[in-house]
Specification:
By secondary structure, the chain is of the alpha/beta class. It has a single domain, classed as TIM Barrel (Alpha-Beta Barrel), CATH 3.20.20. The protein contains 11 helices and 12 strands. Strands 1, 2, 3, 4, 5, 8, 9, 10, 11 and 12 form a 10-stranded mixed beta sheet that branches. A two-stranded antiparallel ribbon has the order 6-7. Strand 4, helix 3 and strand 5 form a beta-alpha-beta unit. Helix 2 runs parallel beside helix 3 (99-111) and helix 7 (230-242) crosses helix 8. It is globular and about 70 Å long.
């Protein structure tokens, strides 16, 4: 390798056309998935105070958003439900007429195959205690929770979900869901596993949006220790062995090393979830004029792609898609 002045790295940075032509990583609307919150019993969209620009949606508004995202070329929606009725088991999660099931039917009727509709599968939004599964005392009981997850998965698939995305971090959840789907005529429905989900402080705004904060305790017995990367690789391996079709790392920006490690270790299709706290930090700084929203958002999303994510789940999806097309 020759040195300066023969080698001048700036030659390929001298114009926008050069920079674009020699870009190593692309960011397109088709790389993005938009998380949306569908709330039962509201007459109009409700702003989420801790997530500027995001709303709890009515069914009509959800369908409208779905159509707009499809027209922008966004890859898909990750759908969360906020029911009016909650109980200890979270039984509304598998109600054939539940709020998420209504949303899945409506979205697929509107957008067909123009937009991927991914159903988040967990119980925290549906239980009156706010935990991710069935309790034994004040601890989530793993194996009875798997039975509930299996029922939810079948209900979501029957309502039209293109992909099931289990997020509870229960041991064996992918195997239980795969078996339930296969046994009930949904062998072709893929699973996007929240394989590596850390017990993160960056979820705070999401808990406002989904109304699923735990009434006591925390989720550190099932979500991962933020210090661990080797454990993340074991989690990913297990989900692959249990039948996952694609994997997810959550959160994204504080864990880009984990995104890279999981991608290189497994070679599997990989999503990274640019979570609510990451979103709200950028928006808060932009609102104060400390950063430029557009350039900062696109830089952050490009960084997640560069780390190895094939898809980025992000609340910036709609704006980013508008900027990119």
């Amino acid at each position: 390798m020759t040195s300066f002045p023969h080698t001048r790295m700036r030659r390929l940075r001298g114009s926008e056309a050069l920079r674009r032509a020699f870009s190593e990583v692309s960011l397109q609307p088709s790389d993005l998935i938009a998380p949306l919150f569908l709330k039962e019993g509201i007459a109009e969209p409700a702003p989420i105070a801790s997530m500027p620009g995001q709303f709890q949606l009515t069914l009509d508004e959800l369908v409208k958003q779905g159509r707009e995202l499809a027209e922008l070329g966004v890859a898909g929606i990750l759908l969360f439900g906020v029911p009016t009725v909650k109980d200890a088991l979270g039984s509304e999660a598998w109600n054939a007429d539940g709020i998420v099931q209504q949303g899945l039917h409506a979205l697929k009727d509107e957008v067909g195959d123009d937009l991927l509709v991914v159903a988040d599968l967990c119980l925290c939004e549906y239980t009156d205690h706010g935990h991710c599964g069935v309790l034994r005392g004040e601890v989530v009981d793993n194996d009875p929770t798997l039975e509930a997850y299996a029922r939810i998965a079948v209900s979501q698939a029957e309502a039209g979900a293109d992909v099931i995305a289990p997020s509870g971090m229960m041991d064996g959840q992918v195997a239980a869901i795969r078996a339930a789907l296969d046994d009930n005529g949904h062998a072709a429905t893929p699973i996007l596993a929240y394989a590596v989900k850390f017990a993160s402080s960056f979820y705070g705004p999401f808990r406002d949006a989904a109304e699923g904060a735990p009434k006591f305790g925390d989720r550190r017995t099932h979500q991962m220790n933020p210090s661990n990367v080797n454990e993340a690789l074991r989690e990913a391996e297990l989900d692959v062995a249990e039948g996952a079709d694609a994997l997810m790392v959550k959160p994204a920006l504080p864990y880009l090393d984990v995104v890279r490690a999981v991608k290189e270790h497994t070679g599997f299709p990989l999503a990274a979830y640019n979570v609510s706290g990451e979103y709200s930090m950028l928006l808060a700084a932009a609102e104060r004029g400390w950063i430029d929203e557009r350039t900062a958002v696109l830089e952050a999303l490009t960084g997640i792609r560069r780390a190895g994510a094939d898809l980025v789940i992000t609340y910036h999806a709609k704006k980013a898609a508008e900027w990119l097309i």
